[in-house]
Specification:
CATH superfamily of the largest domain: NAD(P)-binding Rossmann-like Domain
CATH architecture of the largest domain: 3-Layer(aba) Sandwich
Number of helices: 9
Largest sheet: 6 strands, parallel
Strand order of the largest sheet: 2-1-3-4-5-10
Order of helices and strands: EHEHEHHEHEEHEEEHEEHEH
């Protein structure tokens, strides 16, 4: 199976390429790693030529503008990059009978529920910020693209995830380490938001789950791919502090403590969907245990 990955140098894209390199179904040539030179969210009309050049059977669309505050400041640009560009890719894939697996987000839900349950795939989306709205627009554009073609023209899958961590870049754990060091130097507590909840999710685990779906030809439809369990931002920060052996106290504070351009969902929990193996993705704490040595090496550089 020829699998192309957009955004292959990003957090999830990089993990996907690595996982697909180890997947026997991609063959000796492995996955096709598309960078911004191959698929630019600001020039999506050029993707048809790239599809003709590389002729993938499946495209995993991990590229996105994920700066939620940037999206709030420039909602029109967010809509073009995460909505319009996704639609252009979806139409080009559907016209060529290429399957598409679109990566989406928990932020298509407003996070207002109070029953303690995660959002299920069939719950009604209601984004509370421009990032979520732009990603929902991308979902709908893709659904329209595949719905407007012959059902045999390709399969569309949408995989939503949340609170991704892992290399490269400054993910939440790395930001916490940096903030903790500043707090120690200033002799202060580390203040972290305590009234936002979600599921910290390891990019490598999401990549493995997508590989499993592809291997079993089960990638069509809606999937919620998150590690097990929930945490507040402050609880996650405490986990990071403990694993990194940093001597600082964590103080949970309201999200309103800091003014932000974006309004993240207070309850960002997704209900995980079953994988073909029947095995759920592992708890986020186990994933953090695997990531901690990687984070230590990153911090030491």
């Amino acid at each position: 199976m020829r699998v192309a990955v957009t955004g292959s140098t990003g957090r999830l894209g990089r993990a996907l390429v690595r996982a697909l390199e180890d997947a026997p179904f991609t063959g000796p040539m492995g996955p096709i790693a598309w960078t911004r030179l191959d698929f630019d969210l600001d020039e999506p009309e050029l993707v048809a030529a790239v599809l003709e050049r590389d002729r993938p059977e499946v495209v995993v669309h991990a590229a996105a503008w994920t700066d939620v505050d940037g999206c709030a400041r420039e909602p029109g640009l967010a809509l073009r990059r995460n909505g319009t560009a996704t639609g252009a890719l979806a139409r080009a894939c559907a016209e060529r009978e290429v399957d598409l697996c679109l990566i989406s987000t928990n932020e298509i839900f407003d996070g207002s529920r109070t029953d303690g349950l995660g959002y299920a795939p069939d719950d009604e989306p209601s984004p509370s910020n421009p990032y979520g709205a732009s990603k929902l627009a991308g979902e709908r554009e893709a659904i329209d693209a595949y719905g407007a073609t012959d059902p045999k023209a390709g399969v569309l899958g949408i995989a939503r995830t949340a609170w991704l961590f892992g290399p490269p870049g400054r993910d939440f754990p790395r930001k916490i380490v940096d903030a903790a060091n500043r707090a120690v130097a200033a002799g202060e507590r580390l203040r972290v938001v305590g009234d936002e909840w979600g599921t910290p999710t390891y990019a490598a685990d999401v990549a493995d789950a997508i590989c499993e779906l592809l291997a079993e030809d089960a990638h069509g439809g809606l999937h919620h791919l998150v590690n097990g369990g929930t945490a507040s931002r402050a609880e996650w920060a405490q986990d990071v502090i403990t694993r990194m052996a940093l001597d600082v106290a964590v103080e949970a504070v309201p999200a309103a403590t800091w003014a932000r351009a974006s309004q993240p969902p207070r309850w960002g929990v997704l209900e995980p969907t079953p994988l073909p193996s029947g095995e759920p993705m592992r708890p986020w704490q186990q994933a953090m245990a695997d990531y901690a040595p990687v984070l230590r090496r990153e911090v030491a550089r």
